[in-house]
Amino acid sequence: MQAKKRYLLLFASCAFLAYWYFGGYRLKSSNFTPEEHLPSFVNLSQISTGSALKEREKTPINNKLCSMETCFDFSRCQNGFRVFVYPPEDNSVPSPSYQKLLNVLIESRYYTADPRLACLFVLSIDTLDRDRLSNDYVRDMQSRLQHLPHWNNGLNHVIFNLYSGTWPNYTENNLDFNYGMAILAKASMSDSHMRPGFDISIPLFHKIHPEKGGEVGAVIANSMPLQKSYLLAFKGKRYVHGIGSDTRNSLYHLHNRKDMIMVTTCRHGKSWKDMKDERCDQDNKEYDKYDYEVLLQNSTFCLVPRGRRLGSFRFLEALQAGCIPVLLSNGWALPFAQVIDWSKAAIWADERLLLQVPYVVRSVSPAKILQLRQQTQVLWDRYFSSIEKIVYTTLEIIRERLPNETFRDATVWNSLPGALVTLPSFSDSPENFPFQVDYNNDEGFTAIIYCQLGLSLTPSAPLYRLVTNVARSKYVSKIIVVWSNDKRPPTRSRWPPLPHNISLHVIQPEGEPTKPSISQRFYPHPQIETAAVLSLDEDSVLTTDEVDFAFIVWRQFPDRVVGYPARSHYWDDTKATWGYTSKWTNDYSIVLTGAAFYHRYYNVLYTEWLSPLLHKTVEQSQNCEDILMNFLVSHVTRRPPVKVTQRKQYKEQPTVGSWSPWNDPDHFIQRQTCLNTFAAVFGYMPLLRSNLRLDPVLFKDPVSNKRKKYRKIELVGS
């Protein structure tokens, strides 16, 4: 009996092994696909120019698995990072918010009207609100998309969206159309639905969110109490039932009427009285006791709980107010988290551990509170205060994903002045930008003399004397003359003799012979090798002492415009416009670049970063380029220029009968028009007033002149 069992067991084992070897091998062989027959989404040899489109056409791609390598054609971006906006459809009016977004794109440096040059495509069809119950909901989206000439299943398209899904489930990924391979720039995204390295989470913003500029942050340096009246606050709607109701319905447990204010109301919606619960009446009474703006401005922390969707308007409101956000929205992919380190500006809490929130906020040290609060202002001002900044940040994140594109590190994104005004194409070293405090004292400056008038070059001419005085400076490295006149520049023998260590370069820009570009003075000429640039007009009158002293001052303020001639702007209530004046006043906001130092990086920003509308204004008027440079520097730094010494007149007085643009009666009218145009394009007035003037130590002091370092400055009249 035992022998039979052994034989049966041996037979069963042999049969199983035979089946596993022959049957299993045949089973595995039937599912095996040779490598050459595998579908390929990306041709690795062509990854820098865009993956092979023919392979994509053969094998459909699951848009839920999209990445830049599988759902983006890099070859379209080889000729530059340009964005094409579809022309508006007939009888289709986008919502005000989406129209602002389109305006920002069309007026930006990214825009191209030629789809053949486009790297990205943006729809003119409003996709911000995909809630079917909304008045801004656009119907028949799928059929509209199929009629677009460049749709191609969303390849290289960016879709902006704030609201998706509708009552009662508010399904996150329900846009009511197939967005295919398009990149989603979407609010209230969750980590589970976001395609990593492809989609971008953006903030939820109000309909009144400004198109450009934006309100400044509420925190003023050195005037804010560390501990405010309330430690933690929230005032908003709560939902009696449905998605998002659990979190807000429990907030009353944290309300102590002292340092923690958590007030909610169910008084919203058409049928709130029919849906209210036993706490509604009491909640409404408590809700009416507190003013929302007062809570924002007087709370150290602001709770940001989820609503029907993961995102909330309170997130941006808290950032602007300098109220540290305490996030209560599990799974929310925070806006621009690819580049922004939110641990430096926000606190995370868990919806499931609501009662632990008071302990979390009480455990934050005073030093950490100050750091978090300051960072809220940096992020608000640089990335969130306007639709323009939100759109530009989205585009820059996409641009940095492209092959062969330089990118900024986390330090640049999370510190002033921010990534949007720090061009990685200029340098990959922070030391080469003007925002570093430490400056290389061994490096001199490059003088750029802009010659527009074409004056004769004789030993007594202003230009001749100017070159001579600048060349005597012990800090000058090179002199560049930008000859922007229809006359031929003088030969080298007619220029004053220079020391052997100082070179002279005469550049004649290309352009219309009768109307060269006035912005050529700010072109990033390759001959400029020093960080410091001394900008001069050909008829400027400066002594060597004045040049040296201004350079020494600029070393202390390398991010500012430092110079002699000052002007000011003011608001004219009678005309409701900005005014421009050269009168003596107790403050100034502009230092003219006819005799001023600035960092050479601003030449790059002026040429490559400013809106084409600004350049067009300068070229049409052949004026105001110096005002625009002041706008640019003040916008980047949020600081005023610096005036040195008492000199006000910095030009040689023109001879009788000679023409000068500064004698033109329309000159000031043009400049005032420019001032208002620039403010409109920037979206706000970036110029800041200052009443600071820097003079040399011992300036006009009653001591021996031999003890003074800059002796000749006192001899200069005002």
TrEMBL record:
One of its GO terms (cellular component) is endoplasmic reticulum membrane. Residues 78-363 form the Exostosin GT47 domain. Pfam families: Exostosin_GT47, Glyco_transf_64. Pathway: Protein modification; protein glycosylation. It is a single-pass type II membrane protein. Keywords: Disulfide bond, Endoplasmic reticulum, Glycoprotein, Glycosyltransferase, Membrane, Signal-anchor, Transferase, Transmembrane, Transmembrane helix. InterPro entries: Exostosin, Exostosin_GT47, GT64_dom, Nucleotide-diphossugar_trans. GO terms for molecular function: glycosyltransferase activity. GO terms for biological process: heparan sulfate proteoglycan biosynthetic process. It comes from the Eukaryota. Residues 445-699 form the Glycosyl transferase domain. It is found in: Endoplasmic reticulum membrane. PANTHER family: ACETYLGLUCOSAMINYLTRANSFERASE (PTHR48261), EXOSTOSIN GLYCOSYLTRANSFERASE 1 (PTHR48261:SF3). Belongs to the glycosyltransferase 47 family. This is Exostosin-1.
